[in-house]
Specification:
The chain has about 70 residues and is mainly alpha-helical. About 85% of the residues lie in helices and about 0% in strands. It is built from two helices and no strands. The radius of gyration is 30 Å and the shape is rod-shaped. The N and C termini lie far apart (about 100 Å).
């Protein structure tokens, strides 16, 4: 009886592991801390580049408006 139980247990555990591997997980894939930092830096650079392209005109206008408002 003991031998049968052990064999069945081993077979059931193998089947269980195989089924677990086949299941699709809804959990997002792990991203290491270093990769997250690298992605954040790239996003920051692109954001700064976008801001500097659009910013000089709007910054100049807002600076001029603030000077005229404070002078009044």
């Amino acid at each position: 009886m003991n031998r049968k139980k052990k064999i069945n247990q081993a077979l059931k555990s193998k089947v269980k592991k195989m089924n677990a591997k086949l299941q699709n997980s809804s959990k997002p894939k792990y991203v290491s801390k270093a990769d997250r930092v690298a992605v954040a830096e790239k996003e920051a650079e692109t954001h700064l580049a976008d801001c500097t392209e659009n910013s000089p005109e709007s910054v100049g206008d807002s600076a001029a408006n603030s000077v005229t408002d404070s002078g009044s």
